[in-house]
Design a protein that fits this description.
By secondary structure, the chain is mainly beta. Helices cover 13% and strands 43% of the residues.
């Protein structure tokens, strides 16, 4: 039978057949989706922040004989290591399912169209590309002075595409048009009102033609090489949230030695914008017991104020983080469990935990993000519901009075950015017998402790000194009274 034949096949044969089937399926899909044509493509490149964002407005047309359900978006392979995310949307900003195509020689992303595109019909979609490390400081080193950082962005004038493009144009969105050293002038038109440089519209097949712009960007190019967030759940007290951050500034490096006196003299508008000095974020409104410390200890330069809808939290490191410098710190707070852990009245052993997946600073991406969720003692039937793909593993954790190790879910996510700061759900069961084990142990411990104190207070362990008094009596012989003589 077929099952017996599969059993006899080796692992190498099964792997070869699977790869062959996947390749055939991809070729069929690619051949079908190549019946599309791009009538108009507008690329708006945002260069105002620390990361590059390219918004592709695409008008596609089906030139085939059958309906099309998917669109293959191509990204230049030169930027493969810099891609953070590729997202597809309809013209009305409804998100479309987007997935990276595996096993292809090109860097392709498959986007499901909102409805089948009939032959001869057109459709407008929007594809967002997020990139890291696309801005290069030039010059690479700066002295501590009033000179601001300048960066260079390089791209290709023609967009990479699997389909023929009839017309395309580029919009470069910059912080200011007055602080540009140079840019590609061929076919360029400056638009002062929107601070953009426009190229096109132009047509033609794809070819290598460099697009370059060198401009002033007074911002620190910061990111998190590593972030670790730990959430410890409790059914009695509060939820403890602990976060560890490693931060690096990829801005222009310092030329020479750091001079504190010269740095302190630069105040107001003379301060260099590419130096990292502070971060601020919004914590949950019910957060309390907030702390912020580094490897030395508590950092008193932080600021926290409670607003109506959130807690404003500002982080200031002990020293300014210049280009190429690093820093790290720990922060944490507590949350009341009644707002995040719910239970079913009909099934009191069943609990639902609802919380955000991301860390505190949403606008900064992390190369390596790890979320650890420590479940209550005795938790079973754990189910995790994430709105995206991530690597999940299990660990064991022991705390005080834990007879058994507590289950820890470890969720790893590479290239973590603002898109993944979404809520997730986790369900688990805890029986009352295991729920009150630690409470019973604490009661027994204190009862035994006080009983020991009572017993010890009743027993006298000190040795008493016994004083013995000896009474010595001396009896002296009585003197004999002389008798009076009667003789005369």
């Amino acid at each position: 039978s077929t099952w017996d034949l599969i059993k006899e096949m080796s692992k190498e044969h099964i792997l070869f057949v699977a790869i062959l089937l996947a390749a055939c399926l991809f070729q069929l899909t690619e051949g079908k989706e190549k019946d599309l044509q791009v009538d108009k493509l507008t690329r708006e490149i945002y260069l105002k922040g620390k990361y590059v964002r390219i918004a592709n407005e695409i008008e596609i047309r089906n030139i085939g004989n059958s309906g099309a359900n998917k669109f293959l978006h191509k990204v230049d392979k030169k930027n493969a290591n810099n891609v953070l995310e590729v997202l597809g949307f309809t013209n009305g900003y409804l998100e479309l399912k987007t997935s990276k195509v595996q096993g292809s020689a090109e860097l392709l992303y498959e986007i499901d169209l909102p409805y089948p595109l009939k032959p001869g019909a057109t459709m407008k979609i929007r594809i967002i590309e997020l990139f890291k490390n696309r801005l290069t400081p030039k010059p690479k080193k700066l002295k501590i002075s009033s000179d601001e950082q300048k960066v260079e962005f390089i791209d290709n004038m023609y967009a990479a595409s699997l389909y023929p493009v009839l017309s395309q144009e580029i919009l470069l969105s910059l912080p200011s048009l007055k602080k540009i050293d140079y840019y590609t002038e061929k076919g360029a038109t400056k638009i002062e009102k929107s601070k953009t440089i426009r190229y096109g519209p132009f047509s033609g097949e794809y070819k290598e033609e460099e697009l370059r712009v060198h401009y002033e960007l007074p911002q620190p190019l910061i990111y998190f090489p590593r972030v670790t967030r730990q959430i410890e759940l409790s059914l009695f007290g509060s939820i403890a949230v602990t976060e560890h951050f490693d931060l690096k500034n990829n801005a222009a490096e310092l030329e020479g030695e750091f001079d504190r006196v010269k740095y302190s003299s630069l105040t107001g508008y003379r301060q260099q914008g590419h130096i990292f000095r502070k971060l601020h974020t919004q914590l949950p409104r019910r957060a309390f017991d907030l702390y912020y410390r580094d490897i030395i200890g508590n950092v008193s330069t932080s600021l926290a104020t409670r607003e109506k809808q959130y807690v404003f939290f500002e982080v200031r490191p002990r020293f300014p983080v210049l280009g190429g410098w690093k820093t790290q710190w720990d922060q944490g707070y507590s949350l009341l469990n009644q707002y995040y852990i719910k239970y079913n009245a009909q099934d009191p052993d069943f609990y639902i935990f609802n919380h955000t997946f991301g860390y505190s600073f949403k606008k900064i991406f992390a190369s390596d993000y790890k979320l650890k969720i420590i479940l209550p003692p005795g938790a079973t039937d754990v189910m995790l519901y994430l709105p995206f793909k991530a690597t999940v593993s299990e660990e064991s954790y022991r705390s005080y009075l834990d007879l058994e190790g507590r289950m820890v879910l470890v969720i790893d996510k590479e290239n973590m950015h603002s898109y993944y700061h979404k809520n997730f759900l986790m369900t688990f069961r805890v029986t009352p017998a295991k729920m009150y084990v630690k409470l019973i142990l604490m009661i027994l411990f204190f009862m035994a402790f006080y009983a020991l104190i009572i017993i010890c207070s009743r027993i006298k362990f000190s040795l008493q000194q016994i004083h013995i008094t000896y009474k010595i009596q001396f009896s002296l012989p009585k003197k004999k009274k002389k008798k009076k003589s009667t003789l005369r």
